[in-house]
Specification:
Rossmann fold, 446 residues, 2 domains, alpha/beta, single chain, 20 helices, 6-stranded parallel sheet
């Protein structure tokens, strides 16, 4: 008989995990203390944007395979395996805020009266699992209650596919019984050939932090190269393309531009750095701090480029900002480079109007001081400069000739270097991008 599963926390990770486990044939109960969120999910509505998730939640809520509750007591009685998907946001000192996760364990543990497995999926500093395991021992008298760690590797925008067809599974376990339970939960993925790394909980915690920190470092590295390219008049796009052919490096996530953001990479990078400081690993902490610095500097470099295109003065200039989400196929604006760049332009006196296909409402709530438009045309009307900030497919399908009719200045700054320059240039637009030579430099080379 398949285990019954609870998922504690119904944010991006928890809701996706719950829905995909229901899709795989399990009976799943999602738990959250947010009554409005539970009400929405119980009605089959996902309160954030994630492609394919709405349909999955609605279908399995309708069949009864997926339910939601605010009751820890109900969850404790229901579940054989309890997945902890509670957020661990960044605290003021850069460390992960663990109070919500610890609080969830302290609420659930005293209610457990039979052998069950708690499985952490939240991204946490190394040692968190050991601390929580001790709390479990103190809070429940049942010897069969155990803790494992199974980090998630979901990407917003492709979270459903990443859950159903992950590129790897990591089981941080302390007993054969915990390994067997996780193998049962992931039997479909394992049967399909997904590799599983079975290790201890501390190593599993470190795998997730290391993965996100390495990715952040790769992105910041190509942006560091971009800075050098600007200094010498080279083209970072060509450099990145050449590096990508090296199998030791690979081209994935080697795209120069505005840098990384969202609720994971910046937070996990700073958490890892803070832990390096705690362990006295000065050089490691310095390296990770520089990665963060280069990433944030890309936003100011964009402002400098837009200012230069406006004759050295942004005050009173009208800027159309295309994109607010930190990445396409998401309405998430947490630590969004796009929204941060728009705010930085506003602070220098520019009149900034933001458009985003999905993150319009969240951007309005996050930054009411900016102007917001429901259409690209409205955002670009009478703009002196159009800035491409989030690489939505919609923006790649724009008609540059039609857009040229509504702007005041045909200047496009492509902060993501993903737009095809040919149709824009044919329509009379001047194109600029970070790390790429301007028209004057190219003419000088010829």
């Amino acid at each position: 008989m398949s285990p019954r599963i609870t998922v504690v926390g119904t944010g991006y990770v928890g809701t996706t995990h719950a829905a995909t486990l229901a899709e795989l044939g399990f009976r799943v109960l999602g738990l959250d203390i947010d009554e409005d969120r539970v009400a929405a999910l119980s009605a089959g509505r996902v309160p954030f944007v994630e492609p394919g998730l709405d349909e999955l939640v609605a279908r399995h809520v309708a069949t009864g395979a997926l339910r939601f509750t605010t009751s820890y007591r109900e969850a404790a009685a229901f579940g054989d395996v309890h997945f902890l998907c509670v957020p661990t946001p960044e605290a003021a000192d850069g460390r992960a805020e663990l109070k919500p996760l610890v609080g969830a364990v302290e609420e659930l543990a005293p209610l457990l009266t039979r052998p069950v497995l708690l499985v952490g999926k939240s991204t946490v500093p190394v040692g968190t699992a050991a601390d929580l395991a001790k709390r479990l021992t103190d809070l429940t008298g049942h010897p069969g209650v155990e803790l494992a760690w199974n980090p998630e590797f979901l990407r917003e925008g492709t979270a459903v596919a990443d859950s159903l067809r992950p590129d790897r599974l990591v089981f941080g376990v302390s007993s054969p019984a915990a390994t067997a339970a996780l193998r049962e939960v992931y039997r479909v993925q394992l049967a399909a050939g997904v590799p599983a790394v079975v290790t201890d909980p501390a190593t599993a915690e470190l795998v997730k932090l290391s993965a996100n920190t390495f990715l952040a470092t790769k992105i910041s590295f190509i942006n560091a190269v971009s800075e050098v390219c600007e200094a010498v008049g080279a083209d970072v796009g060509a450099v990145a393309a050449a590096l990508g052919h090296d199998p030791r490096i690979g081209g994935a996530h080697l795209r120069p531009g505005l840098g990384f953001g969202g609720g994971c990479l910046p937070k996990d990078l700073r958490s890892f750095r803070a832990q390096a400081v705690d362990f006295g690993l000065t050089d490691t902490a310095t390296l990770l701090g520089v990665v963060d610095l280069i990433n944030n500097r890309a936003r100011q470099r964009l402002v400098d480029l837009v200012r230069a295109e406006c004759g050295g003065e942004l005050r009173g200039r009208r800027v159309a900002a295309l994109g607010a989400a930190f990445k396409p196929d998401s309405d998430d604006v947490r630590d969004s480079p796009a929204l941060a760049a728009a705010v930085a332009l506003h602070r220098e006196g520019a009149v900034v109007t933001v458009h985003d296909p999905a993150a319009g409402p969240t951007a309005r709530r996050a930054e009411p001081r900016l102007r917001h438009a429901d259409t690209v045309v409205d955002a670009c009307r009478d703009a002196d400069v159009v800035v491409h900030l989030t690489e939505w497919r919609d923006y790649g399908e724009l008609d540059p000739a039609a857009l040229a009719e509504v702007v005041r200045g045909r200047v496009l700054v492509d902060a993501r270097t993903t737009l095809d320059p040919a149709p824009w240039q044919e329509a009379g637009w001047r194109l600029r991008a970070l790390g790429r030579p301007g028209p004057e430099q190219r003419e000088g080379e010829s």
